TrEMBL record:
Signal peptide: 1-20
Record keywords, A-Z: Signal
Native species: Phenylobacterium soli
Identification of the protein by name: DUF3047 domain-containing protein
Length: 160
């Protein structure tokens, strides 16, 4: 499982160079890493914020990386709506995408969910513990390698 994750990370590092972006870790488990990119964060006059998030999944063979654009309501009740989702293969080639329509409206944020993490970070309710700048591939690979090392260290401690 970790080999697949490391392979995706290695392929991500080899992806074609792109403009530097600042990505932040929102959460991580041994199975998945959740990040948010803030350089393209857009705050609208009505208080809504648009942000990109990404998840890197351990053990996912077909589409280990998912990138999504969210619109988050930072005023009033916490609400969120997807605007676009792009699924990538291990070489960071986009495989499939989905774009919202006008009828895909806001949904309430479920406490403790990924949407809640996205809402909290996008609206400034939580501070960033870790951030790194680089292309999407570089950042995904760096975080994937760090997570793999953490998982290995945790497994080694647990085995003792």
């Amino acid at each position: 499982m970790l080999k697949t994750f490391a392979s995706a990370a290695a392929l991500a590092l080899l992806a074609s160079p792109a403009l530097a972006e600042t990505w932040h870790v929102m959460g991580a488990t041994p199975a998945e890493l959740l990040m948010m990119e803030t350089d393209s964060r857009y705050a609208q006059p009505n208080g809504d914020v648009s942000v990109w998030t990404s998840s890197v999944k351990v053990g996912e063979q077909e589409e280990p990386v998912v990138k999504a654009l969210w619109q988050v309501s930072c005023k009033g009740e916490p609400r969120i709506r997807p605007q676009m989702v792009v699924w990538y293969d291990g070489a960071l080639n986009s495989k499939e995408s989905w774009t919202a329509t006008r009828k895909d409206g806001f949904q309430p944020v479920v406490p403790g969910s990924r949407g809640d993490l996205t809402w909290q970070y996008a609206c400034g309710k939580k501070a960033w513990p870790i951030s790194i700048s680089g292309s999407f591939g570089e950042v995904t690979g760096a975080y994937a390698n760090a997570l793999a090392k953490l998982v290995d260290a945790t497994s080694e401690v647990a085995a003792r």
